[in-house]
Amino acid sequence: MRALYTASSGMAAQEANVELISNNIANLRTTGFKRQRAEFQDLLYQSMRRVGSTTSEAGTLLPTGVDIGSGVKLVATPRVMSQGTVAPTEKTYDLAVRGEGFFQIDLPDGRTAYTRDGSFELDATGQLVTADGYVVQPGVTVPDNALSVTINSTGQVEATLQGQTAPQVLGQLQLARFVNKSGLEAMGDNLFLETAASGTPLVDNPGAEGFGTTLQAYLEQSNVNAVTEISDLISAQRAYEMNSKVISAADQMLQSTAGMLR
């Protein structure tokens, strides 16, 4: 009976939807996390009477047809790349991007990753690195005798050194942005990779045209809205429940049919 398979596709789709929602909620407090949403499409139709077919020798046409659908499928899980809330941290090397752009990260295998997570630290040599020790591009090294470090809204890094009154420029941070940032591939650890769908990165200083600015001692929070996710979860649960009831109804109809044959 076709209804069994149609309803089962609906249950599978809503199960995947709940998995996405659970991942969003699990990352409610993950720095720079971007929520995902599920997108669905209907499956193929079996045409019992094709619309527009002739119904008589006089050439009359069928105004409506009879099409039976076969269910639903999950086609995409795009990330919503909207700005998350920016919160103060009082840490010198914490950076947030207000607007467009990603920090560039050197991976150990030579690839470049991109992130909105600006919770940076200094390694043993004074280089600016991520929490996993990956170097932030372009490399910035803070000397041992630095008394204070300032990173302005355009990404310029300055430090006041011992015995000096004027600050010294240590380097310039840059941001990368993409034509289709939703096309980036998530690799975990708050990192994204360039893909053919995202396009090649456009790199420039923070504050340049089309790029956001940097905020020192701030971090961008997840853009997950707990109320929205709970509402979506309830909707997905109810849709799953209704599909399960269709399976139960189809099963009862099959039982009735089988009983007639006894």
Strand residue content: 25-35%
SS element count, helices: 2
Mean pLDDT: 91
- Give the overall shape, derived from the CA principal axes: elongated
Query: Helix-strand pattern, N to C?
Result: HEEEEEEEEEEEEEEEEEEEEH
Number of domains: 2
Report the structural category: alpha+beta
Q: How far apart, in Å, are the first and last alpha carbons?
A: 19 Å
How large, in whole angstroms, is the Cα Rg?
A: 27 Å
Biggest pleated sheet: 7 strands, antiparallel
Low-confidence stretches: none
Name the helicity range.
10-25%
Number of strands: 20
List its salient traits.
three-stranded antiparallel beta sheet, elongated, 2 helices, 20 strands, 262 residues, alpha+beta, single chain
What does this protein structure show overall?
- The protein has 262 residues and is an alpha+beta fold.
- The chain folds into two domains: 2-48 and 67-80 and 224-253, no CATH class; 86-220, no CATH class.
- The chain is 23% helix and 29% strand.
- The protein has two helices and 20 strands.
- The strands form seven sheets. Strands 7, 8, 11, 15, 16, 17 and 18 form a seven-stranded antiparallel β-sheet that branches. A three-stranded antiparallel β-sheet has the order 12-13-14, with no helix packed on it. A two-stranded antiparallel ribbon has the order 1-4.
- Helix 1 packs antiparallel against helix 2 (226-260).
- The longest helix has 35 residues, at 226-260.
- The mean pLDDT is 91.
